[in-house]
Amino acid sequence: MITWYDTIDSTNSEALRRLPELPSGTVLAAREQTAGRGQRGNTWFTEPGKNLTFSIVLKPSGLAAGEAHLLNYLASVTVAEFLEGYGVSCCIKWPNDIYVGRKKICGILVENSLSGGRVAASVIGIGININQKEFPQLANATSLSLATGREYVLEDCLKAFMAVFESLQHKLEGLPAAYTSRLFQKGVHARYIDYIRDGEEFTGTILGVSHDGRLIIHDGAVERLYRFKEVGYIL
Ligand code: BTN
Fold first, then answer.
1. CB-based contact 157:52 (threshold 8 Å)
2. Substitution site in 14, 37, 56, 233 for ligand 1 pocket (most atoms within 8 Å of beta carbon)
3. Residue 183 in 3-state DSSP?
4. pLDDT tens digits for 151-175?
5. pTM score of the predicted model
């Protein structure tokens, strides 16, 4: 079921507050977020009424904590297939930013509750820029409307998104291939920053992701494997 709020602090925060009572599959969407949250403690700003900002509650039965990255893949691949449905091709910048060309169109914030080595519940928060055309504070943002030159009805977009999500959510085994095939800068020699090695800059080539969701970069000599926040892109 989809519930729309005119204004709320953050759909992820609301989903977390109401988590015990919300059934798996619940979607909370907002026309305006006053305290939207992004990765790394950042704030997620969007123009009210222009974009999709929503959270999906999942209570997966039997997903091991070590497979939690599959929920990131599920969200990322759904966004990619959703955009492709409007004729827009995109890339997934590991772990889960969605880019059109070199501009970000969507951010994803997955917050999991673990219990007994399993994912008991997951709040998958997604912000997709739909009709916003100007991003004064952000140099590298874009939207569906900027990509296609058209305007969209947000409620219709969310229904289209959820149709893709529901078709993929029971096919988790196919997600690593679908995710890897869209990986940003895969096979491209590029610059990165290694936070495990004191912010060392290096050049390398993304090869893919490991079975546990780490990013694999070949630096010309060896393969380096990174978890979230251990590596950055120099764009
Ligand atoms: C990022 O930093 O790229 C992740 C942004 C995630 C934003 C979405 S908008 C809906 C949901 N509610 C939030 O407060 N954050 C997520």
1. yes
2. 37
3. strand
4. 999 999 999 999 999 999 989 999 9
5. 0.96
